[in-house]
UniProtKB/TrEMBL annotation:
Domain Damage-control phosphatase ARMT1-like metal-binding: 188-333
Name of the protein this chain belongs to: Damage-control phosphatase ARMT1-like metal-binding domain-containing protein
Alphabetical keyword list: Hydrolase, Manganese, Metal-binding, Nickel
InterPro entries (alphabetical): ARMT-1-like_metal-bd_sf (IPR036075), ARMT1-like_metal-bd (IPR002791), At2g17340 (IPR016949), At2g17340_3_helix_bundle (IPR035073), Type_II_PanK (IPR004567)
Amino acid sequence: MESDSEMVAFPLVLTPIESNYRACTIPYRFPSDNPKKPTPTEIAWIDLFLNSISSFKKRAESDDTVPDAPVRAQKFAERYSEILEDFKKDPESHGGPPDCILLCRIREQVLRELGFRDIFKKVKATETVTTRNNGSNGVPLDEENAKAISLFGDVVRLNDTIEDPGKHLENLVRGLFAGNIFDLGSAQAVIFVDNSGADIILGILPFARELLRQGTKVVLAANDMPSINDVTYPELIEIISKLKDENGQLMGVDTSNLLIANSGNDLPVIDLSRVSQELAYLSSDADLVVLEGMGRGIETNLYARFKCDSLKIGMVKHPEVAQFLGGRLYDCVFKYNEVSS
């Protein structure tokens, strides 16, 4: 985790004078609420995080990189449960009042204090594979990423065979879990990526490749540290290195305008008031920002306003989010905001 001194505001978010930026989409409380009494929304979300503890405990128990993992996993479950129950008694405890960012951050802090760094690593179960794109020798790759890499060429070739420009773009966007079409005439784009496996490899990367083919400079921003199954900066570098051919191309497309940035983030959600200096520098002139995934594009930043065009993409996976948005579970969100020149 980078120190606070190294974190800066994302330069493309409108300044507080222009827009009162608030990372969390769902307001857990309002100024008129009693600061010492939890709101119904806070209770609902605290219960959601309480109900997820058992799955996190199970993942932690099986982490063979941590000594006495089962014992430490039990300590995690007990400690995090106690903190969440404390929030129900006093919303201002533990740095509250709680919101989705704080609840995620505390969960990660408790795990890391007990020695757990990446408890979802086994979801991807490392194995040795040979990628079909460059014919390289077998290398250790995460299973889900390896499966997706083996399908990448087929997905790209299918996209490339669609001659109608509108249908071609629609198919790419459907790969990002939406069916809308928008103008890809950007000179530079910043894409905040989400999950490992099919999400990044079969969804984001074909989309990014199309932008590159049209002459767009693309910055892919990935997490600094592991959180759930989100792809990290080192993992993304490795994935792309396996997909490039011997000429450094991505299925025939030059990648000299493709940059990978460490966002500085360590959560499945993101507060754009705190990103890495590297990302801020690389994205200062971008004219399209893409926030992909429920955590970054829906639960946080759905209503964030930018100095450039923006696109928020994700699938609704929590009933509480669906209820707030007036939609249904597993609805796809595709929110495109164009900034007038």
